[in-house]
Amino acid sequence: MPSIALVSLVVHDYDEAIAFYTDALGFELVEDTDRGDGSRWVVVRPRGAGGVGGFGNSGLLLARAKNEAQAASVGNQTGGRVGFFLHTEDFARDHARMTAAGVKFMEEPRHEPYGSVAVFEDLYGNRWDLLQPAEAAPPA
Q: What is the pLDDT of residues 75-123, one digit of tens each?
């Protein structure tokens, strides 16, 4: 069965986006290739999410805005809704690490029937859920 390999995320600057996703969120830089026309093919994904042989799990293609319309969408690619969901097996650890790295959480952690969750923003204002699904959550 086919799978989603990449999701494009429009950014203002490659290097600042790489720094945020690798340093603050702990992602790994999978590829950063100069395309020869001033653009780059930049892929990041959660560390350890490579699947068998490095395939099988989704990553983000960091795509620098090329015009005003694209630049206007940076930080609002999902209309202000949570558009990205980062699963963890240890919510408390990752929440603490991300907070210490300067990630802006929009709320205090919540413990819902589906798991532990808190909304955060990336460096441009896109909203994400940090989520430990209930089946992976330790008993409260």
A: 999 999 999 999 999 999 999 999 999 999 999 999 999 999 999 999 9
The CA-atom distances, in angstroms, between 28 and each of 40, 61, 72, 91 are 16, 12, 27, 19
Nearest to 88 by CA among 38, 40, 48: 48
Q: Rounded distance, CA 10 to CA 105, Å?
A: 21
Which of helix, strand or coil describes residue 136? coil
Q: Which helix (H) or strand (E) holds 73?
A: helix 68-73
Question: Other C-beta atoms within 10 Å of 74: how many?
Answer: 19
Sign of CA dihedral 107, 113, 115, 116: positive
Contact 118, 109 (CB under 8 A): yes
Cβ neighbours for 104, distance < 8 A, ≥ 6 positions apart: 120, 121
Q: For the whole model, what pTM was predicted?
A: 0.87
For residue 80, which amino acid is it? G
